[in-house]
Amino acid sequence: MYDRITVILNYQGWLPKDRADGAGMAGTMAAAAEEIGQPLVPWDVFALRYAEHTGRTAHENLLSGDPHESGANLDYFLWLVRRGAEVVVIDTGFGAAAAAARGRRLLRDPVEALALMGVEAATVGQVILTHLHYDHAGSLMPFAAARFHVQEAEAAQATGPCMCDPKARAPFDVENIVDYVRKLYAGRVVFHQGDAELAPGLWLHAVPGHSAGLQAVRVFTARGWVVLASDATHFYANMARRDPFPVLVDAAAVLRGFDRLEALAPSRDHIVPGHDPGVMRAYPPVPGLEGIAVRLDSAPVLGWEYLA
Prior knowledge:
This protein has 12 helices and 13 strands. By secondary structure, the protein is α/β, with parallel strands linked by helices.
């Protein structure tokens, strides 16, 4: 069914092969699928919290933040998207070694967090890496059957000349990059240049700025299109105040990325920040996994106006 929908949309010129045009794309696939009598089937979407960093200052979270003021804690997530037997994992997190080296508190191994949701890492077929920073692209090896989706620009940055600079390579972990290269040589990496449709109702969108090849993920759910921003906005406050997180490669691009996120989503309440602890309060918990997993395909109980 899904292949037929995609073919028809492409034939009619409604679905670009390699990109989506922000607000103009939002809802297009769903509306077109309904027109041909086959509604787009929604995905279930979950955020899984696996680590935290406490004791931060405002200057660590906001580019204009005061270093003398306390800042919000940083939560670390991976995301799970599934629809029947289809399973996609978004980012793979970091493990105990990285947590110890960087002073983060590991609450649970990301692979264990997935297992709590009934997903075995070794059986996952598709993994989206929003970028290759240590907290998003560690723990690759347990995903033995997966193909990893990465922006070409991100791969070029992580293995290119700018890694000669200690500050530029600080958000990366060399062992993670070595594992990524092993996956590449095993034929397990799929490269993208800009926006791409991975499956009906599942899109990648390039939003560089925090890193050279950062990608957000847009998912069709029971409440409409949800945009998983990853580090295009770490906190609700980054985008709401147009004040970037201070780890970045291009501040102007980060600001353009805020606009892109808003264009892709039906509303701000359909945009999910990448590291904000407020996500765990905003969305309903998975029964039995309170404090660990929340449902992002359900409407938030707290909105941006409160959380930002």
